[in-house]
Give the backbone structure.
Amino acid sequence: MISKRDLSVLHIGPGKYQPFDRSHVTYEIWSELAAGFRDYHVIARSVNAPAEWCDGNLRITLLPSRTEREAEFLISQFKSVPVAVRHKPDVIVCQSPPLGGLAAIIIARLTGAKILMELHGAEYFVRARFASRMWILQRLTKFAIGRSDRIRVVSQGMRLRLLDGYGGALDGRISIVSPRVNLARFDCTRVNNVAGPLRLAMVGAVNNNKGQLRLIQALEAAPFELELRIAGEGPDLAECRERATSLAKTHSALRVICEGFLPPDGVAALLRSCDILIIYSRSEGTPRAAMEAMAAGVPVITTDAGFCVDIVADGVEGFVLGNDSDREIVNVLTMLNSDRRLLARMGAAARQRARRDFDSIRLFDDYRKLIADTAAR
């Protein structure tokens, strides 16, 4: 059995970061994953100049980047090959099969390293038009995961979709490790809102896919007071603020507050102050915001996008909306507004689920063990 302290791990991801920035949540994840290994080398993209630095056994290499789009990494990933080969990893952790996985295959052949491939989003499983961008990415994904030693998915639903779409022969290589939440950051003693306006939260990029503007329009039909707080930045933020100002002038029952960007502790404070988190996306993976809200004892109302149904049990920790989400959201909120005890019970169930399934302490241990097991294959 190979010991973790003997292993050198290479972690390839298409994300983009400020050089020497240790304040983002992903850096916390890298630091936790690195614990116990001989060294843990992360290769990602830089928002400006390339950079490289070490914190103990954690080494960060940020490659030069020209655009914000992750698809840039489809080509620039190959710049990681000479950097990685010099460090001779035992295991390669790759966050995206097409965006990093191709380089991982080359590195593995040159060094003998094993590959642990991750899948996070639902884009790998949507129906794609022949020769479209998504179709090409799915073909590259099939090529990459077919050459991986282990495959990490984040839910049972994703595992089943992977087997259905990419072949049952992968079954023996698939492991489920859920996304992680720092329970200590979000846990709190909640005071149930028994009479005031329902306090709603949305957390994430402010854009058409996430649906903040669609939600505002749907909530205008609600016949009772609501407060919606939107955390995040994106192309729809300015229009959301315009709608918030317009609603305030007409004395609408709906009050909208646009928070803009919030750091992790700010997101935790927002969730603790709200009654319900709403995920209104057209497409999703397994949104971390939903799990963070549940850790704070906040029920979640979500569309049936991606693998949200694997996180939120309909009628237990919240509700999963159907095809007519604009009508259903008002009906669900009307029911919860009139039955605050149900809201409190769902919040308690959400916290219990988060403690059972999303605890970062246990899941980091599980993931480090998966990395070590990959090396031993």
